[in-house]
Design a protein that fits this description.
Four Helix Bundle (Hemerythrin (Met), subunit A); 3 domains; about 70% helix
């Protein structure tokens, strides 16, 4: 830990000592790196902008991450910017590099802020980094407390519209940001040694054993009744019904008509007649089973 802090102090000291670059000098270094892969030019160019990386890293410290790690991620973004920078466009390198530095730090925050991985779309990232600021801004403009239910609903709707996300996304993100991760293996009470773990209170939405058994029995009965009912159909009706209703990829009327040498309208009529036959056969059996 001490060595890491010392390394960080040396990095900050070197960044402050690095001279600022004039536009012409900055462009010359970028040309040398882009055209000749001059590593000395790359080092001078990036070192002159490390103070920008450090300044941006301090803005993301509120997410509880190490400043040293944020600076390192920002330096990766700075190198990426140097690799993609086109000096002939006459854009200052600091302006161009800011986007890459910010993107690298934001990706690092999203990967490490919580063990629960959130959305990585541009809308979700914007929501993550702007939700608190927008809520505070809306509460200040309204001059009322943000905790009021009606005010909170209005705020969520306004934020969703401003960032192009759904209100449900805003509500979910607000819940995530309201507290740290909590292990499901933690006990619900630290004062009680025999207290249950939090995972014991998670609802189980899977069917109960008797429901599973009942569903299996009903499925067998339905399968048996269907098999008996299909025996009452003609070969042609059974073929069409299997191809149209019982296959995972139903055949079209044209395909079946071509197989049987009849029109697709005739296939449709035979299919409708077969379904009606099955309905007449199965409905009395179903009613009898319901009475039982």
């Amino acid at each position: 830990m001490a060595s890491a802090l010392g390394l960080h102090r040396d990095l900050v000291k070197a960044a402050k000592a690095a001279p600022l670059l004039e536009r012409d000098n900055e462009r010359a270094l970028a040309v040398r790196w882009r055209g000749k892969h001059d590593e000395h030019a790359l080092h001078e160019l990036t070192q002159a902008h490390m103070r920008l990386v450090i300044a941006m890293a301090t803005r993301y410290r509120r997410y509880g991450l190490s400043l040293q790690d944020l600076v390192q991620e920002g330096h990766v973004g700075l190198l990426e910017a140097a690799a993609r920078y086109e000096p002939e466009r006459e854009l200052r390198f600091s302006t161009y590099a800011s986007w890459w530095i910010r993107a690298a730090m934001q990706d690092y925050v999203l990967r490490n802020w919580s063990i629960v991985r959130g959305g990585t779309s541009s809308g979700q990232k914007s929501l993550f980094f702007n939700l608190r600021r927008l809520r505070a801004k809306l509460a200040g403009a309204r001059r009322t407390g943000p905790g009021e239910p009606s005010a909170q609903r209005d705020d969520f709707a306004a934020i969703a519209q401003a960032l192009g996300v759904s209100i449900a996304d805003v509500e979910t993100m607000n819940t995530r940001l309201s507290g740290p991760d909590v292990s499901l293996n933690m006990r619900v009470s630290d004062d009680e040694p025999d207290a249950a773990e939090r995972i014991a209170y998670l609802p189980d939405t899977s069917p109960l054993p008797d429901e599973l058994v009942g569903a299996a029995i009903d499925g067998d009965r339905i399968h048996q009744r269907l098999h008996v009912a299909l025996d009452e159909l003609t070969d042609r009706e059974r073929h069409i019904l299997n191809a149209r209703q019982l296959n995972e990829e139903p055949a079209t009327l044209d395909v079946i008509g071509g197989e049987l040498g009849i029109s697709k309208e005739r296939v449709r009529q035979i299919e409708a007649r077969a379904i009606e036959k099955l309905r007449r056969i199965l409905m009395p059996a179903a009613a009898t089973h319901a009475v039982q």
